[in-house]
What we know:
Blueprint: H1 2-12, H2 17-27, H3 34-47, H4 51-81, H5 85-122
Amino acid sequence: MATTLSIAFWFLGVPYFLLFAVFIGAMELIPFIGATLGIGTVGIIVAFIDWWLTLKVLIVAIAMQQVKDNIVAPRIMGNLTGLSPVIIFAALLLGGKIGGLLGVILAIPLTGVLKSIVEVVLNPKLPPQTGSFFYNPLDEDGEMRGWGEGEI
């Protein structure tokens, strides 16, 4: 967020563009309200300089935040958890409906755990996460492998 906003603010001719972009990027670390607080704070400060520039800054920052939150973040979460973006959105909506703010925070981890449990139940010979990083200690006949002799 800080990188893309610094480039956008530089093109807009915002004074202290790097400081403002890094501030918004740092505020992104605060869950749920950080980006809004960062964009609002920068908007108020830039309003003292130029109203027309403030409008441009707000439009660009909000547009980039929406792209990040609705396109980039679900794809990254999907790659990390193995869940599709549609499932992530549905889990977030369901988590928010059932558990409020805590439900939204726990929705993706719980969905990932549920996915792993379903994978193990459907095919018990596979590890919950199937990737080259993860190691399946069971071979086809159910014997332990890779531990060395006498270490089991």
